[in-house]
Amino acid sequence: MTRFARTAELPAIQTPAALLRPFAGEKLMLLRAEARAGAVLPAHAHPHEQMTLVFSGRVRLRVGEVWLELGPGDVAHVPGGVEHEAVFLEDTVAFDAFHPVREDLLEKLR
Fold this sequence. Notes:
Layout: E1 13-14, E2 19-24, E3 29-35, E4 40-44, E5 49-56, E6 59-63, E7 66-70, E8 75-78, E9 84-88, E10 92-99, H1 103-107
Antiparallel strand pairs: 1-2, 2-3, 3-10, 4-9, 5-8, 5-10, 6-7, 6-9
């Protein structure tokens, strides 16, 4: 089945660091994350493989022991189970792809 969404209009989950707007298929999930400059996503890990693509703004992302600074068009891979964290240097819109689907996030919309 084909589905469509305007990502800026998807139902949102408000967290201390960002506004999260998930869109899930059967085995893959895309998440629009909107964060203000200065917001911090604390260190965490999850079993899901993740790709982060910065659409606008700038973010410092730690994946394991490596710190990266990402801007528009930059992408980073976060292997499942690896600790990571982020500091948003500017107002930022980023997209995270997860495999498998993050059911823990979808539960927060129900």
